[in-house]
Amino acid sequence: MEQQAHFEAVLAADERIEPRDWMPEKYRATLIRQIAQHAHSEIIGMQPEGAWLTRAPSLRRKAILLAKVQDEAGHGMYLYSAAETLGVDRADLLDRLHTGTQKYSTIFNYPTLTWADVGVIGWLVDGAAIVNQVPLCRCSYGPYARAMIRICKEESFHQRQGFEMLLALRDGTDAQREMLQDAVNRWWWPSLMMFGPPDAASTNSAQSMAWRIKRHSNDELRQRFVDMTAPQADVLGVKLPDEKLRWNAERNSYDFGEIDWDEFARVVKGDGPCNAERIERRVAAHTEGAWVREAALAYAKKQAAKVDA
Ligand code: 3HC
């Protein structure tokens, strides 16, 4: 039992559990679940924006979007690598994504209908990601916390490039301002769902917080995001699609309306606007990319043989 005592002492001292340390099997399983689903979200998240790479309105915007989509692939790679320190294999994790036994964030099951969507994803989706993921830099599991430090730095670039793009639309034509407002109307509520179900319905929060994996509750981070974003909407000259959104001086926070948890549950279950298309494209890319994995493995074997020779 002294292993359990040591594990608890490390958590109590707010220090890190490392791959070679003893850990409760449920702690390991929770981390594999969360890190794998985070990684799956990153690689699926490449698709909505990827649809606009060939249609970006300028070379500068295309270069920025290319860099961002490549970053998302890199985030997936860091996170699959972090998950593998827990004794799982990324090929198996990808199977679980492809067969639906592991999830990815609902936010990536919505279509990107106009160029404004690309900027709104940067502003709202990457903005929500930062609020949700900065606390993960202090997660009790070392490899996950360290992966998050670099990911959060890159997410900040993603959020800023999105906001800067939206300023250009704000200062453009009436049609561009309408396009901007339309995208905000479609992405606001799904972005709030990224923080997970209400605390009362969160099956994992209590244990994840006890293990210092999750440092703040779903509702707490959602509120932090609303409080940060509402003033930014004023700068953009857009109206957030929530009649109940208003500043509450007593609470020193914004009150906001009820999220449609039926929609959330439907999209989690696979019944969102783009679920089938996203998985189909993912599986096709994985199949068509088999030769790249085989070539990389053959090259690695050759290099290893040279070293041993
Ligand atoms: N989409 C899909 N599933 C969701 C979800 C969402 N938006 N929110 C919650 N869920 C699932 C949970 O995975 C859990 O199901 P499971 O037990 O089968 O895994 C169930 O709903 C109950 O939710 P809980 O609150 O109990 O689950 P967690 O404690 O895991 O909290 C979380 C959910 C806040 C998303 C947490 O897992 C987390 O912080 N994950 C790391 C960050 C992450 O994965 N973000 C996803 C977006 S990726 C991204 O932002 C990329 C950027 O480039 C834009």
UniProtKB/TrEMBL annotation:
Cross-referenced InterPro entries: Aromatic_CoA_ox/epox, Ferritin-like, Ferritin-like_SF, PaaA, PaaA_PaaC
Coiled coil (residue ranges): none
Segments traversing the membrane: none
Top-level division of the source organism's lineage: Bacteria
Protein name (database record): 1,2-phenylacetyl-CoA epoxidase subunit A
